[in-house]
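ZP: hey, is the pyridoxal-5'-phosphate complex queued? I don't see it on the tracker
AM: it wasn't, my bad. submitting now with these inputs:
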Amino acid sequence: MNPNSLSRRELIGAGAGLLLANRATAQRATVAPDTTGTAPILLGANENPYGPSSKVRHAIAAAMERCNRYPMRELAELTSAIAAAESVPDDHVLVGLGSMELLKICGAVCALEKQTVMAASPTYEDLPRATRRFGGNLVEVPLDPEQRHDLDAMRNALTQDTGLVYVCNPNNPTGTVVGRPALAAFIKSLPAAVTTLVDEAYMDFVTDGATSSVKDLAISDANVIVLKTFSKLHGLAGQRIGYAIARPARLASLRSARVSLLPQLSIAAAKASLEDQSYLDTCRSRILAERRRLERYCDQAGLPYTVSHGNFLFVQFGARETALRQHLKRQGIMVGRPFAALPGWCRISIGTAAQMDRLYSALNRVPVA
Ligand code: PLP
């Protein structure tokens, strides 16, 4: 039998999953409608499928009036608005062109200063990639068997040259989390010369009571940087807005390496989004409902997955990974790219109810070899 095809049992399981999926089809939205049509379904980049709220769209349109002006004042206003939303002082926030820009700066600075960067494997790759690109030394520590950061192994892998440890929490692509007590103890145990960079891009989707932001440690501890983004829950991936929370001295070295100010439209979008909490709550609950529905589908279809705290699920396709990816692509459904460190696994971003229905229906129609 072709190892890339689904067995009859799996197909029956998958069919049952679809039935369940249909029964659970989501509530009416106050967010953008599920207009999937025949357009490709993008389940590969962990974006918010609903996009920004109508208030944000209006704010972007209104900001066109200021497009001829450099956005110094507006950026300062956004920085204050973020600081207020995070309950941290203004001078502890640095806004970047997506958290990607800030991750790349950290990698470049460590490389220039000959400091080793440590990261889990697999994890989100902007920082590891930038470290390598700028000629720095990167130490990768495999996740533990449950696909979580292995903090003990990371501590054991420290050397005199280690300057920065990257903890992506929840981790991309696995969705696993490090509980706050363990992370706080880990940070405390590190030598004074080592900075911990905690990437909380997906913290808004965490449903584990023991896991929460460590932004307070970025205030109390000079060696902690927390990163956040407007690309996930806020639905603004295309506007490129992220930020770091850290002590002012720490932010000064990042600020000096920044590429640019942010565009007026992005600043306006982020400010308006912070003021639309009920929209964010609606997005969060719909995404979490669809994440649960995908888990149920996988249970029914006999597809193992890792319990996720992001807006995605890491699913084990096993030997059929390539065939399933190709099949989904032919059906116009794009899922996450393969991760060399965990072959056979596929990261599926959570879409709208209608998009997820299309995914289930495509999976149910995998050709039997
Ligand atoms: N950090 C993590 C963990 C991510 O998964 C991503 C994007 O997928 C980013 C940072 C980059 O986010 P941004 O869009 O703010 O550059």
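AM: back. The two ends are 7 Å apart (CA to CA).
ZP: great, adding it to the tracker
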